[in-house]
Write a structure and sequence with these properties.
The structure holds two protein chains of two kinds. By secondary structure, chain A is of the alpha/beta class. Chain A contains 13 helices and twelve strands. In chain A, the strands form three sheets. Chain A has a seven-stranded mixed sheet, with helices on both faces. A three-stranded antiparallel sheet of chain A has the order 9-12-11, covered by helices on one side. Chain A has a two-stranded parallel ribbon with strand order 1-10. In chain A, β5, α8 (181-193) and β6 (197-201) form a beta-alpha-beta unit. By secondary structure, chain B is of the alpha+beta class. Chain B has a four-stranded antiparallel sheet with strand order 2-3-1-4. Chain B has a two-stranded antiparallel sheet with strand order 5-6. In chain B, a hairpin with a 2-residue loop joins β5 and β6 (146-147). In chain B, α1 (2-12) crosses α3 (29-41) and α2 crosses α3. Chain B is extended, with a radius of gyration of 21 Å. Classes of the chains: A alpha/beta, B alpha+beta. Bound molecules: pyridoxal-5'-phosphate. Pyridoxal-5'-phosphate (PLP) is lined by residues 36, 97-99, 123, 169, 173, 201, 203, 231, 233, 239, 244 of chain A.
């Protein structure tokens, strides 16, 4: 017998990075700038808290929404860092990664046929998430001339006024773009005017190198229409522990919890203990990692300029988004530089058509490797000049 | 400010070139060079060394941590004793510390015999030194902030979202 796949599963094409992964596997000595996760280990205090919780046998489910203590710590943290006020009892849900939170939101708020506008280039999971929920994707391109920031003109041109949901991700994966408060204001006004629900993925909020991160939910009249996603994967280097959370008004979080309690029951317990400790005592570790990313960011941007590749001045996350030299598509460049020089980067079109002509280059890799990888890219560009 | 940043980067890896540091800090290359020169001239940066995992070397290299107790008199202070000890090339580090003993001294030599002889013939006889306790280093796990072990391989996938 063969399985008959659901239309929704069939509607999602295979991941654009899979093929590259296979090429990379065949080749030895690949330096990877293709990774979307920190190269640091989780701060020791957080790992130790996880170990202690295991030693104490704390291995049962927690409350569906997550340990109360953790929700309180999250409430304090977002109030302190991002000026966001959420009630730990009703307005916060702890999930298995921000990924689960994003999925819950699509399933809780998108009806079949609803339109979800996604600012692009975008993190690769949003589009499949919308399709799994039965919604329609409306790409909203952002442009390098606007520093890859979303603009009201861009929203209007794309027809987002008629959308039901708008998905934002700043600092952005893959471009490294950020949206300061003055750029978010008109977007917020647009959302209010056209009655859009906003999903704001702020998982890279701590990794903002120029100024402070502003959450769109902190702007006037936005709290009631916004779901904020965040988590511990990036700033706290906890990808494998799978812990994230969502913030929103009580009825919205209640709806997400309805799905969560039947599909996940609760987020990983061990990870919740680690996360609690991460918020409690790991600020210095986060600060050090952010400083290190910032140095690498400057290094990588400056090297691309020396090599003669145009590169956008990324100000957040741990990616930069250079343009491929003339004569290449993004995919050709990514594939050839992998085959010839053993450097793995992700072609920008994976993140939506507007990403064509660009590469996502992650600097979540030690400086020695970055230096070697950029030397190889330099040689590659020189060979093909 | 930037001088501090240059210092931190040199501490992390003294082999970063001025150009690399310039790239990381947004300083100009000649500014970095000037900052390094100044740090050296001011005696803040005293030298550059490799962090070596001696356990991997075939030849024996013996290191010991020595606790020293001293008795001071009117003419001799800690600094005088320290000055005298620090001159020996076998002494790689010397610190006055609080607690049960006075000085914490690191000694290196080619054999246990050589190190023992040095302690018994050169250090112990110093009149102000009342007691020495020698601890030979058996295995070193971390030096100068760098973990020595086998190093963890990066087992992240080469591509991830
Ligand atoms: C923008 C964005 N959101 C969410 C995630 C997933 O995070 P988590 O590990 O918390 O599921 C990623 C991971 O790459 C991401 O880049």
């Amino acid at each position: 017998m063969t399985f008959e796949l659901s239309d929704r599963v069939q509607a999602v094409p295979p991941s654009g990075i899979r093929r590259f992964f296979e090429i990379a596997e065949e080749r030895d000595e690949v330096i990877s700038l293709g990774v979307g996760e920190p190269d640091f280990a989780t701060p020791w205090a957080a790992r130790d808290a996880a170990i202690t919780s295991l030693e104490q046998g704390k291995t049962s489910y927690t409350a569906n929404r997550g340990k109360r203590e953790l929700r309180e710590a999250i409430a304090d943290y977002v109030a302190d860092r991002f000026d966001l006020g959420y009630d730990p009892d009703e307005e916060i849900i702890v999930t298995a990664g921000a990924s689960e939170a994003v999925d819950l939101a699509f399933r809780a708020f998108v009806n079949p046929g609803d339109t979800v506008a996604i600012a692009q280039p975008a993190y690769i999971s949003y589009e499949p998430g919308v399709i799994f929920a039965g919604g329609e994707v409306l790409p909203v391109p952002t442009r390098e001339e606007d520093d890859f920031r979303l603009t009201v003109e861009g929203l209007e041109e794309a027809g987002a006024a008629d959308a039901d949901v708008l998905v934002l991700c700043y600092p952005n994966n893959p471009t490294g773009a950020i949206m300061p408060e003055e750029d978010l204001e008109p977007i917020a006004e647009f959302a209010r005017e056209h009655d859009l629900t906003v999903f704001s993925d702020e998982i890279y909020a701590e990794l903002t190198y120029d100024g402070e991160h502003t959450s769109i939910a902190s702007l006037e009249g936005m709290r009631e229409r916004t779901i904020v996603f965040n988590g511990f994967s990036k700033a706290h280097a906890m990808t494998g522990l799978r812990l994230g959370y969502a913030l929103g008004p009580a009825d919205a979080i209640g709806a997400m919890n309805k799905i969560h309690q039947y599909t996940m029951l609760s987020a990983p317990t061990t990870a919740q203990y680690a996360a609690l400790e991460a918020l409690d005592s790991c600020d210095n570790d986060v600060e050090e990692m952010v400083e290190e990313y910032d140095r690498r960011r400057r290094f990588v941007l400056s090297r691309f300029r020396e090599i003669g590749m145009d590169v956008f001045e990324a100000k957040g996350a741990f990616y930069c988004f250079p343009e491929v030299p003339e004569g290449f598509t993004a995919e050709e460049f990514a594939e050839e530089v992998l085959r010839e020089q053993g450097v793995a980067v992700v072609p920008g079109d994976v993140f939506g058509d507007v990403g064509e002509g660009h590469l996502r280059v992650s600097y979540a890799t030690g400086l020695e490797d970055l230096r070697r990888a950029l030397n190889r890219i330099e040689a590659f560009v020189a060979d093909h000049a | 400010m930037s001088e501090r940043e240059v210092l931190e980067l040199l501490r992390e890896n003294a082999r970063y070139s001025a150009a690399d540091i310039a790239r990381m800090t947004d300083l100009e290359e000649d500014e970095v060079e000037a900052a390094i020169e100044e740090l050296e001239a001011a005696g803040l940066v005293r030298g550059y060394q490799a962090v070596v995992d001696w356990d991997r070397l075939e030849d024996e290299r013996v290191r010991a941590e020595v606790e020293l107790n001293v008795r001071l008199d009117r003419e001799t202070g800690y600094d005088d004793i320290a000055e005298r000890l620090a001159r020996f090339p076998q002494v790689t580090a010397l610190r006055l510390v609080s607690g049960d003993y006075d000085f914490d001294m690191e000694v290196e030599g080619d054999s246990i015999r050589e190190v023992s002889q040095f302690i018994s013939e050169k250090v112990a006889p110093v009149p102000e030194i009342t007691q020495t306790v020698t601890h030979y280093v058996m295995t070193s796990y971390k030096e100068n902030g760098i973990e020595l072990g086998d190093g963890e391989d990066d087992d992240r996938l080469s591509y991830s979202p």
